[in-house]
Amino acid sequence: MKKHIISSLILLGCSLHAVESRIELRHREAGGVGYNTGYTSLDYFLMAGENVEYLLDLRGHVFNNGQAAANAGFGFRFPVKDDKFLIGGNVFYDMRQANDLFCNQVGAGFEWLTKYVDFRTNGYLPIGKKKHFETKTFDRFASKSVLVRRKLKATLPSIDAEVGTPLPRPFYFAVGSYYLFKQEQHSLEVGDAWGARVRADVDLGRYVTLGLSVTYDHIFKTRAQGIISINIPFEKKKCLKPKKNNDYCPVPKTRNLYRVPIMRNEIIPIQDRKKSKDPLLLAGEDDPVKFLFVNNLAAVPGDGSFEKPFASLKEAEKNSEPGDVIYVFAGDKTARNMDQGIVLKKDQILASSGAPLVVGEIAIPAQTPGIAPTITNINVIDNPNEPFITNPGKTRIHDFFVIPPWDYIFGRGYSDVGNVDPHADARDVGFEPILPDAAPHAGPVIIDNYLEPAPAQIADDWVVVPDGGT
Questions:
Q1: Burial (Cβ within 10 Å: 0-12, 13-18, ≥19) of residue 308
Q2: How crowded is residue 136: how many other Cβ atoms within 10 Å of its Cβ?
Q3: Which of 13, 161, 325, 377 counts the most CB atoms within 10 A of its CB?
Q4: Residue 205, phi then psi, degrees to nearest 5
Q5: Which domains are assigned to the chain?
Q6: Residue 323: closest CA among 295, 360, 366
């Protein structure tokens, strides 16, 4: 084992004369295709070999927001027709850190380099976790549906190609095109875009390079980047015609094709797509959940939509179907048009605008936080066993302000002119029921999934109805 190690070190030492490398510190500003901020890079580029050159390219990147990316690649170049041009190939493994998505991809490239014209093309294929799908919360009500906001974040497979020229020196110009392939999930699509890119570099001496890159596609639009890089080469000086008696080496008049950097997209492109046109669906269902809206301030007749709600609970009951959500707004905060109870059908939910509601995976925030709709059932007067809400199912009764019918009809309240009126009829506009503070209030209770009124209790400050009164 030791002999093999020693032999390998001797062979490596004998070949060191053919190994050269370069370190490059570079910054790009601002965002590019599939990313929105600039980034700083540290590259290590190693070249080894004589007839056939082997390449090692390692790159690390830190975005302005602190997230990271990296590339590791291997390549080769071999001369054709006495070094008049080189043909090369490379393979890379790329990584990128992003919010909710740590992505990876493999890439492969081909290059054809001459003294005056370069051609290169690359392909990129994401692997591992490629998408992060998130269903956002409630977006808004529309018609008889709830629209939800959906978001898809996905890496984009891509290809690119460009043609470049180093003339006139010390400038370099290139023009090319790229294509971002389509990705799709949950009716959301990303990618599917052709783009164009132009770039230019200028060498300010041996160690500093300035660059400009401009791209355009219909997804990311126009992106312009300024680039500055500092190059530190570790290579032997090679003179075409060295002067006698000194070490001066003139700048070569032609570029060294073996030292041309590998040009490719360093950053995995990611696209975010948001959409709020989809109605709320339950898992495994094809039809959206239907909402019927009730607001006792609504003008009649209504159709139960958000724009034209029903004015009473009974209208919603008559026009609803199993599985519907009947969404009740606080309205004028009285039981006007909310006074005959409601019989719910199978799988229906009676929802209050005063409290949050969760349907499926979507959380709908309270539309009138802390202000609950007021309901009662005047039929209890003639039939004490009649419930306020029949078959409540998943309905949360405590999200409503439920009052006994006698408080509703003869309760103490405010008239529409703001004066206290002990005999105000709650069915009049402007009535706001006030329950006795000192007396225990007996409201309906749930028994076996039904609501029934509790026994009436007498309080000193309740209105007493004389015999024969109505």
A1: middle
A2: 14
A3: 377
A4: 85, -155
A5: 19-237+255-275 (2.40.160.160), 280-470 (no CATH)
A6: 360
Report the C-alpha gap between 342 and 384 in whole angstroms. 15
The CA-CA-CA angle for residues 193, 199, 202, to 5°, reads: 165
Q: Give the C-alpha separation, 124 to 264, whole Å.
A: 10
* 389 Cα distance to chain centroid: 40
Burial zone of 215 (CB within 10 Å; 0-12 exposed, 13-18 middle, 19+ buried)? buried
DSSP SS3 for 135: strand
Cα 336 → chain centroid:
43
CA-nearest of 312, 303, 345 to 143 is: 303
> Are 364 and 394 within 8 A, CB to CB?
no
> Mean pLDDT per segment of 10 residues, for the chain of length 470 residues?
48 54 95 96 91 93 96 94 88 94 96 95 94 81 89 93 92 97 83 96 92 96 96 69 51 72 95 80 77 92 93 94 94 89 90 92 90 87 79 85 75 44 48 38 37 40 43
* Tokens 């090679």 -> residue: 238
Distance CA 344, CA 375 (A): 15
pLDDT of residue 182: 92
The answer to whether residues 28 and 225 touch, using CB atoms and an 8 Å cutoff, is yes
Residues 69-79, buried b or exposed e (16+ Cβ, 10 A)? bbbebebebeb
**Alpha helix locations (H) across 182-336?**
313-319
- Which of the 8 DSSP states describes residue 373? P
Q: What is the pLDDT of residue 436?
A: 35
Strands in 262-320 per DSSP E: 270-279, 291-294
DSSP annotation string for 341-370: -EE--TT-EEEETTS-EEETTEEEPPSSTT
Assigned token pair, 149: 């906001």
* 2 burial level (CB within 10 Å; 0-12, 13-18, 19+): exposed
Two tokens at 147?
């629209």
